[in-house]
Structure formats: structure tokens, C-alpha cells
Design a protein that fits this description.
One of its GO terms (molecular function) is diaminopimelate epimerase activity. The protein is an alpha+beta fold. The protein is about 15% helix and about 45% strand. It has a 17-stranded mixed β-sheet that branches. Bound molecules: ligand LBFN2T5F.
């Protein structure tokens, strides 16, 4: 097996593999990926990604949750794979890569942060007061609470994730406090089945839900979001319940590399 690389985005950590030669995908089955991601018996990570060649894009991102199953979009993973591409010598002013939810643009900012364009959002439901469900590339349940730091994330998050409307497909569950001036968030992630220190699609969903919740007038927004593993920011444009030009910004850093 090749060299592996470990990255994190605000504490959401990933194993990255360079599969530009195209050999790895078929060698990796679910137990193998889950074994690499295992915290005590493996490398340890919330997910694993392959960076693959693509004829029309700078690269393709293939993402697996730590349970070893392929999953939907990972926002922090997308930001980390851009940093990984740069570290592999793929240098662009603006990256254009393909992920499971379609093409994404991204930039490495002068301060070292990576900003990633996320999919538009046009559909938000509210299953109960102060709760919102939306898809930002991955499905998210957002519950506004008085203080996200005081919530028992694993027990309350798991109960919602396993509840009848969501049990089959799964959902990521985020507890959020604050408002459009600044949010704090804690996330229970599907496919990790535990709390993670940050979740990029969850942070994006929380910021959009915060705008939606107050029925904000048409305009642009930029909301800092404090996750347990670091500070991110979400900017975008809101017009009559449609959210577009959404960018997720935050740290994306190399941790170490090794041989499997
Ligand atoms: N950590 C992620 C989300 C990864 C996918 C998620 N576990 C799911 O299955 O939906 C992020 O940063 O967005």
C-alpha cells in the first residue's frame, strides 16, 4: 500500500491517499477503510479520501465515512483535499474539482485558510419548532438550543439520527446556539456515529438555517461558526428562500504522513 497522509479541517480529520494512478480504488473495501480509520487499532480518522485524476477537472474527490462506506459530500474533506492537491504540486489560483454532489470551486487564501464553494440550497423543512432539515451536499438536522456546549451530543444526536424519519438513510445532527452574528455548533456525524470536532456541511447548514430562521430579507451574509475544533465561516446570498454563492472557509492542515 502507498504512503498515506493525514489532514484535518478544524479537527475533522481525514486519511488522504493519492490515487492519480488509479490503482487504489479497487483495493479498498469497507472493512479495510474502517480499519484504517479506527481510532485505537488504525491510523484514526473521521473519514478517508482518494484524490483521483479526472479528464475535465483538476482532480476527483472520492469520500468514505469512518465506517468504510462511501458517503455524500464532506465540506471539511473538500477543503482538506484542496490543500492535499496543493501539497502534491497541483497549483491553481482557483481549483475546480469533482465530488459526489457535483463540481466544486475552491481557493487557498493568503492566510492559509481554504474556502470551498458549496451547492445551492432551495429546500428547507422544519419538523418541529427551532429545528430545520436541509441538504448542503449531505443531509443535516439543525436544532437551535440555548447553549450547544451543554448538550449531550452523542445521546441526543444519536436518538434523532436513529428516529423513524431518518433511521434508514441516516442524518447528521447539529446542535447550534447563537444567531447570524455568530454561531456555536456541536455535531453528531452519520457514518462516524459519534460526535466529531467539526463538520463542514453541518456548519454550512447551520449558517443557512440561522438566516432562514429569522426570515432575513434578500441580501448577502457572512457568519462565523465556532466548532469544537476550530473557527469556520460561511458566506452566501439569500433571495426568497433560495441560498446560492455559498462558500465555506476555514483551516485545512497537514498533520503527518506514513506508510501503511
Ligand atoms: N464531515 C463532513 C461530513 C461527512 C459526511 C457525513 N458523515 C455524512 O455521512 O453525511 C463534513 O465536513 O461535511
Amino acid at each position: 500500500m502507498p504512503t498515506f497522509h493525514k489532514y484535518h479541517g478544524a479537527g475533522n480529520d481525514f486519511i488522504l491517499l493519492d490515487d492519480r494512478d488509479g490503482d487504489l480504488l479497487t483495493q479498498l473495501d469497507q472493512p479495510t477503510i474502517a480499519g484504517y480509520c479506527a481510532r485505537h487499532f488504525g491510523i484514526g480518522a473521521d473519514g478517508l479520501m482518494l484524490l483521483r485524476s479526472h479528464a475535465e477537472y483538476d482532480f476527483e474527490m472520492v469520500y468514505y465515512n469512518s465506517d468504510g462506506a462511501p458517503s455524500s459530500m464532506c465540506g471539511n474533506g473538500g477543503r482538506c483535499i484542496v490543500r492535499f492537491a496543493h501539497d502534491l504540486g497541483i497549483h491553481k489560483d482557483e481549483y475546480n474539482f469533482l465530488a459526489v454532489d457535483g463540481p466544486h470551486r475552491a481557493k487557498i487564501l493568503p492566510n492559509g485558510n481554504v474556502t470551498l464553494e458549496m451547492i445551492d440550497v432551495a429546500s428547507i423543512s422544519s419538523p418541529r419548532a427551532e429545528a430545520f432539515v436541509l441538504d448542503t451536499g449531505s443531509p443535516h438536522y439543525i436544532a437551535f438550543v440555548a447553549d450547544a456546549a451543554l448538550v449531550d451530543i452523542v445521546s441526543r444526536g444519536r436518538a434523532i439520527r436513529q428516529s423513524p424519519p431518518y433511521a434508514a438513510e441516516g442524518i447528521n445532527v447539529n446542535f447550534v446556539s447563537g444567531d447570524i452574528n455568530g454561531l456555536s455548533i456541536a455535531t453528531y456525524e452519520r457514518g462516524v456515529e459519534d460526535e466529531t470536532l467539526a463538520c463542514g456541511t453541518g456548519v454550512t447548514a447551520a449558517a443557512i438555517a440561522a438566516v432562514h430562521r429569522i426570515n432575513a430579507p434578500t441580501g448577502d451574509f457572512r457568519i462565523p461558526v465556532r466548532a469544537k475544533g476550530g473557527l469556520l465561516a460561511v458566506s452566501g446570498t439569500h433571495k426568497e428562500g433560495q441560498y446560492s454563492n455559498i462558500w465555506l472557509e476555514g483551516p485545512a492542515e497537514s498533520v503527518f504522513k506514513g506508510e501503511i
